[in-house]
Design goal:
Elements lengths: L1 H9 L2 H6 L22 E9 L2 E8 L5 E6 L4 H15 L4 E4 L8 H10 L3 E4 L9 H20 L5 H13 L10 H10 L3 H27 L13 E5 L12 E9 L3 E4 L4 E3 L6
Parallel strand pairs: 1-4, 4-5
Antiparallel strand pairs: 1-2, 2-3, 6-7, 7-8, 8-9
Length: 278
């Protein structure tokens, strides 16, 4: 009888779309590409605090960060600061955005892909961990600014921001065990090529080791990634900001394409597998 009841519940569309998932799918993390040099892969996002918007960029290899206050998320207010970021990093091979609408404009895509030949990778909606490099920087930036504000209450937001980024770039980073600014500019100011090459290789290994340790810690209690077949019915989590407490919790979708950690649905949504009801 219990098996029959469970089978009926699993096939009930009302239950699937409205009940909480008591055992949510928590797939293991996949390894991300390891940069070979400073400026190879750059993470970009928009930092929001106290009514201010700041375009931020973090180089994955050196952890060096740049920031530029912007007026709005409109393309015309982002395009020029973004261009300056990319040229200062030496035109990266890959740029990683989150799913911020501001980065999805045809203008920005054209400049990056067609003019600068940069590969764009966009993290899935509601999955900030994919762009975790810059999310971690935002957390650190907020922490530094709070400390600076406590000591200098008369300083403006821009002054606090500039000082906080300076402190970050000149402090020893726990992953690379070095100062981000030294790793970034070491390739241009080093007078001993052999010494720099050894430092570069050592830094790659430290980044790899840190990623492996993070994956091990994160995945110790998680499940293998599930593959979904084209045409398969799935139920995708509806996030709270899109509804009310009595709105359906999940939306019925049909799989169009199975990917590594995401699926593409027939409605052309990219959904991270952790947001699919198990």
């Amino acid at each position: 009888m219990n098996n029959k009841i469970n089978k009926i519940v699993k096939q009930c569309n009302i239950c699937k779309t409205n009940k909480y998932d008591r055992h949510p799918n928590k797939p293991v993390l996949k390894e991300t590409p390891i940069p070979s040099y400073a400026g190879h892969i750059v993470h970009i996002d928009i930092y929001k605090t106290e009514g201010n918007l700041v375009l931020t960029a973090v180089d994955k290899f050196s952890k060096y960060a740049q920031v530029k206050p912007i007026k709005s998320k409109a393309t015309q207010d982002i395009k020029e600061p973004l261009r300056e970021f990319l040229f200062q990093f030496g035109v990266p091979k890959t740029v990683i955005f989150d799913n911020e609408r501001a980065f999805n404009s045809a203008t920005i895509t054209f400049v990056l892909e067609d003019i600068l030949n940069i590969k764009i990778f966009k993290s899935p909606p509601y999955k900030s961990a994919v762009n975790g490099q810059i999310e971690t920087f935002h957390s650190t930036l907020s922490e530094i600014m709070r400390c600076l504000k406590a000591e200098n209450r008369d300083q403006s937001f821009t002054q606090l921001l500039d000082r906080a980024v300076y402190e970050y770039n000149y402090s020893i980073h726990s992953t690379i065990n070095n100062r981000p600014i030294e790793i970034l500019f070491g390739r241009t100011v080093s007078t001993d090529p052999e010494q720099f090459e050894k430092a570069r290789v050592d830094n790659i290994q430290r980044v790899k080791d840190k990623q492996q340790q993070d994956l091990k810690n994160h995945d110790s209690k998680l499940q293998p990634i599930i593959d979904y077949n084209p045409g398969e019915t799935i139920y995708v989590k509806v996030h709270n900001r899109l509804g009310t407490k009595i709105s359906p919790r999940y939306k019925k979708e049909v799989v169009k394409e199975n990917r590594s950690t995401t699926v593409l649905t027939e409605s052309n949504r990219v959904v991270h597998k952790s947001n699919i009801k198990s």
